[in-house]
Amino acid sequence: MKKGMICLMLFVAAGWLVTGCGDEEKESTAPSVGVASIAPDTMVAKVNGKEITVAMLNQQINAMMQQYAQQVPPDQLSKLKPMLRQQAVAALVNQELLQEEADKEGVSPSSDEIDAELEKIVAQFPTREQFDTQLAQAGVTDADLRRDLSRNLKIRLLIDKQTPEGDEVTDQDVETFYAENSEQFEQPEQVEAGHILIKFGPEDTEEQKAEKREKLAEIKKQIDEGADFSELATDNSDDVGSAAKGGDLGYFGRGMMLPAFEEVAFALGTDEVSDIVETKFGYHLIKVTGRKDAGVVPLEEVKEQVALFLTNQKQQKVIGEYIQTLRAGALIEYGEGFKPQLPAPTGQYPPPQPPK
Questions:
Q1: Among 71, 32, 23, 5, which Cα is nearest to 234's?
Q2: What is the DSSP letter of 243?
Q3: Which residues in the chain belong to E strands, given as ranges?
Q4: Could you tell me the pTM of the whole model?
Q5: What are the residues whose beta carbons fall under 8 Å from the beta carbon of 294, sequence distance 6 or more?
Q6: How far is CA 135 from CA 25, 122, 153, 193, 347, in A?
Q7: Calpha distance 67→45 (Å, rounded)
Q8: Coil, strand or helix at 278
């Protein structure tokens, strides 16, 4: 697992904000999808005298790109880069304003709150041991991660203080949204599956591809003899994102995967493992672990998602108004070429999506 995946876990756990991941000096030399050709210590912006650098901007863009990679087809993802850069600059400015205000108000999360947030991240891995191993491989220490979680929690607590009391989402709110938006909860037939991927590329010779196929054939033999699919996926799969979850891809419908992959997945029985499947990404073993028939998802299955969506909507308004107030009273300067061309976003990034 790369350092970016740990950052992504932090980004998701934080809800709408990521303030860092590990040592900033180390991060400044990492490959970037943002502004890699510009010196890492170049000033992007200055907020009340506190400088934001290109290294910090690249880190923010990378986290955003990884989150979007789970929602946007690869051929469209590159088109988002200019927009993401602008969003990232605005997010970093907003983060600095909120950190500054949290410090002024003496907002600080407790050790128990940090522990609880850390456990949310650990829970996204098959075991605690695998989390520790991936963290070490990423070059992120436990102290690094706890520091970043503390920063994010500090801002979340500050935002919570701005939320009016008695404005919580009720069961009636959830039921009303569900009834009035029933089309949002229609789902096609879906399968839940995991995979083990051994990648190959156009630079690989036929001999190299044959070696990779043989490697996957040996893994399949181990599975047939009783080895655990999830453990083998974590140890061997080249799909870093799903490998961290034992190969799990979650539920998906038709048209969401490559045709060759999808055809096999929908033909498999529950708990059945496929033979080797070839796609443009490489060789796969696929295991189906669940199925859902087409129909409307029952309210009980989406109740928490709907409540979270409605809560995020309410928070969007609060966050937007609060940050606008902070911006109005701050001195914000931008480095050459980094000033946003559109009004600066003030709320959640990316915006909450309705449950589907």
A1: 5
A2: H
A3: 43-47, 50-53, 186-187, 190-199, 248-253, 277-279, 282-292, 295-296, 332-334
A4: 0.57
A5: 187, 188, 189
A6: 18, 10, 20, 25, 30
A7: 24
A8: strand
Question: Which residue type, as a one-letter code, is found at position 236?
Answer: N
CA separation for the pair 74, 2 (Å, rounded): 19
Asked if residue 7 and residue 151 are part of one domain, the reply reads yes
Spatial contact of 93 and 44, defined as CB atoms under 8 Å apart: no
Domain of residue 219 covers 189-293
CB 229 within 8 Å of CB 287: yes
What is the distance between the alpha carbons of residues 86 and 94, in angstroms, rounded to a whole number?
12
State which amino acid sits at residue 81.
Answer: K
Strand partners, 46: 51, 333
CATH of the domain at 83: 1.10.4030.10
Split into its structural domains, the chain has a count of 2
* Tokens encoding 248: 């799990």
Q: Which two tokens stand for residue 236?
A: 């061997």
CB-based burial label for 139 (10 Å; 0-12, 13-18, 19+): middle
Q: Which two tokens stand for residue 299?
A: 């309210």
Q: Which residues contact 176 (CB under 8 A, 6 or more apart)?
A: none
CA distance 218 to 304: 42
My answer on whether 153 and 278 are in the same domain is: no
Encoding tokens for residue 275? 């033979």
pLDDT along the chain (356 residues), means of 10: 43 41 39 62 94 91 78 75 87 93 94 92 85 82 89 89 80 94 90 96 93 96 96 94 92 92 96 95 96 92 92 84 93 91 52 48
Question: DSSP of 23-62, one letter per residue?
Answer: -HHHHTTS--SSSTTS-TT-EEEEETTEEEEHHHHHHHHH
Token pair belonging to 259: 């045709």
Nearest to 325 by CA among 159, 156, 92: 159
Residue with tokens 């950190």, as numbered in its chain:
99
For residues 112 and 233, membership in a common domain is answered with no
